[in-house]
Fold:
Amino acid sequence: MLTTTPVVPGRRTLAIYTESEVDRMWLLHSLRYRKRELTAVTQGEQARAMRRKDFSRYKIPWPTDAVRRDFARRAAALHDLAYVSARERHVMEELVVHELEKGGLARLPSVG
Structure:
């Protein structure tokens, strides 16, 4: 998960820190892309638990700095669009709930 809010990992949670946004974007992509491979070695009821030892053996491909920079530039633009879209969806949901609560839909002309 990529978060814009600082978090404190809970007990038995592996947090991975990268020095740069470029590396963070590549790491996120690499882990998401290989989700099935990672899930194959997970444990627990929801297949989310993985031993640190197993994770440390997982090889993450690391392309050249130029490739990672180009990827991060493109991915950041997509992440920004997704964030804006999610925010707009949230605002629209709040608006619909607000209108429903005050009976706003009753004022709409019926279709049919």
User: Anything to note?
Assistant: The CA atoms of residues 50 and 56 lie 10 Å apart.
